[in-house]
Amino acid sequence: MAAATVQQLAADYVTTTGIPVHGRVAQIKILLRHALDDLAKRGDESDAGLIRDLFFGDSVNAVVLSAGDLLENAQRRIGETSEVRFRERRQTAFRAFAGFLLQFVDEARRGQEDRRGQGDRREQEGRHGTALYRQEVVSGYVEHGERFVALLAEANNVTVVGFTNERLTERLEEALQRKRAALARPDAFWSSLRIVYVSTGLLDFLNDERWEYPDRKEAVRLRRLAAVYGRRAVSVFLRRAPSSRWALYETPNVPPFIGSLFEMPSGKRVVQLLIPRPQRSTPDHLFMEMEDLPDQYFSAAFEDIVYNSINDNKVVPIGLPADGGFRCTGRRYRQNVLTDQSGATGWLPLVLVVTYQRRAGRVEPLLQLRTGHNAARELDRISHLPGHIYDGDADPRGGGPAGAPLILDIGHELAEHAAQLRLQMETGDDLPAPLRPVGTWSYLHHDKENMFFFVYALELPEEFQFSRRAEIYRFPLPELFAVRENQALRKAAALLGATGLSARMWNAAAEIVALNLRLHDYEELAQRFGRPRPSGHDLAALAAELAEIEERTRQSWYTGDRDVELLGLSGLQYREFFSMLLPLYADVEITGAAEQLSLVRSDAAKNAAIERLAELYHDDQLMGSLPIEL
Known about the structure:
- It is a single chain.
- The protein is α+β, with helices and mostly antiparallel strands and 630 residues long.
- Helices cover 43% and strands 21% of the residues.
- It has four domains: 3-114, no CATH class; 134-311, Endonuclease, Chain A (2-Layer Sandwich), CATH 3.30.870; 315-474, Nucleoside Triphosphate Pyrophosphohydrolase, CATH 3.90.79; 477-623, no CATH class.
- Strand 11 (315-322) and strand 12 (325-333) form a beta hairpin.
- The longest helix is centred in the first third of the chain and has 34 residues, at 83-116.
């Protein structure tokens, strides 16, 4: 099909449907996306998916991949290894789609003519040359959001504009379950899902249900926390989804309304506007719902809000460790990094903030329980606060693509700012105490990017309390030792169950396991892992013994209405517990840390184990070859 023909079809389609899109490229994109959605609904998901991958990939709006990358990804997704067969498959799909486009635009034109002939659906009134329409408006109380969930479950394309969207995750989860049940497809998802938040600064001017707090500063802090938790929970939920056809945005301007736009399978667009009632809880808020006709206001207004917002898929630098710092050599999108089994190479700079608190004569570390609401990886582990360093913040020292390579060190403003932002996510405000720089550490992955950490420490005021939703708790040092002990046993058991390891890989992995067991006084077990690889009866006996000890040493933590079985410490903090955390804990006077550190340093075998683990954990060839995390 000639380019001029496609351009004319796109112009006819947007004119017929009244979609407020201008420009040749934008009109063609709208035509192609809508036609592909319709083709998939008619049962030809295979061709629709292939063509969508070739044109758009996983992008919701702007296509960020090159044509070559799109082609390669599309071939990989359909599992076709032959270039010749894949070329034939593409040509067949495009020929069929060309005929379908003509039919699709013609049906849209005839459907619009039919609607115009149904004068009983709307009554046109002339007033100063403006067409007005009468239509049904439904209103009610938000209550538990049942109507919103029902629309979500049915819609193909959704745009949500809200202030904090703090309850959105649970409604997305419920709607997605209903959608999958209705379509009998466990991987069903929206064709497009866009969610817009207001920027943090605008939250200070809202008047919501936090009237029970007479202290305005406290009300503002809680509102910021609600927005952070809401956004993070939605982001984590979407990152676990089987699709990338979603995007989060932040608007720097107060939106003209809050609400949602739903595009239904029939093509009908439903607008639901939310009307907050000052100092009332969300169930008492009102909503208004109406159909948005092609030449009315709301579709264009939603598009304007999205267009003038900032995509939350931030850019993170990648690079290499260099002389105790980090040299940035490139950039990637946040949503595309640290994906399990991606095989991606390179290093990512991150921060880790170690928090602790004095209370009742004791000093104890504060760690976060990683749950499905605050993390996408390493769930049911505990961790100090990690965070990405983003490239979007201004760098007063210069650097970047147009200048010299950006070099980060622990005193660099970008690193310090990232650490402060990570704290603000959990506190809702700036804390007066300054961050204390500690040092840098690296973590090697076998299946994705490696991580380079800038570590800071912060003592929180004695009177400070985290929100329950932060899932941050005081963990006495003996409990941390017990958690790591069980984790070392879990890793030993995982190694026994691993398959496909060569003798050389087994010996290296077994040495790592043995050294960690020795640090927790399992000397006899450590020696058994130092022997030749067990098999048959010996393997079964060792596995059974390990399983019994591991089960007996399991640790749990009570949170909310559930008891969570702790799976251990987050990666870096497990590997560097004795080389980084314990010395730092002793330095900041964590109760019992100095005594434990003295015991370790006075034990020659444990000192040797710590030094040897440092060599093994920082051997990039070894750690990149082991197929399990140790």
